Amino acid sequence: MTTVNLEHLAGRSVRSQRGKNIGYIEEIRAERDGDDFVVTEFHVGVYAAFERLSASAIGVAMLDLFRLRRRDGLYRIPWDKLDISDPTRPRLLCPMTELSGMKSAPDLEE
Length: 110
What we know:
Order of helices and strands: EEEHHEEEE
Oligomer: single chain
Radius of gyration: 14 Å
Strand content: 25-35%
Number of strands: 7
Mean pLDDT: 77
Protein name: PRC-barrel domain-containing protein
């Protein structure tokens, strides 16, 4: 198990296997595991910040108005698909085609 301080990852540029910048880590999702929290996925891309800030009906309406909820370049990257062994240079461990774009509504329960 790798332990990394989240402040070393937030805002970092993520590179594809070919070295292309696919976006910045905008959000890190984690679940409680006993006394610890375990990262489940990383939200990456220019529109991930918009989605993170849209946890209200008005925010969701704005995303829909500008069609940002359905834009490409917005990714949910499972924890095991991102190499964070060097937190200053996170990179994908899978081809871009394996990533699912974030096309669902933001979590309004939070």
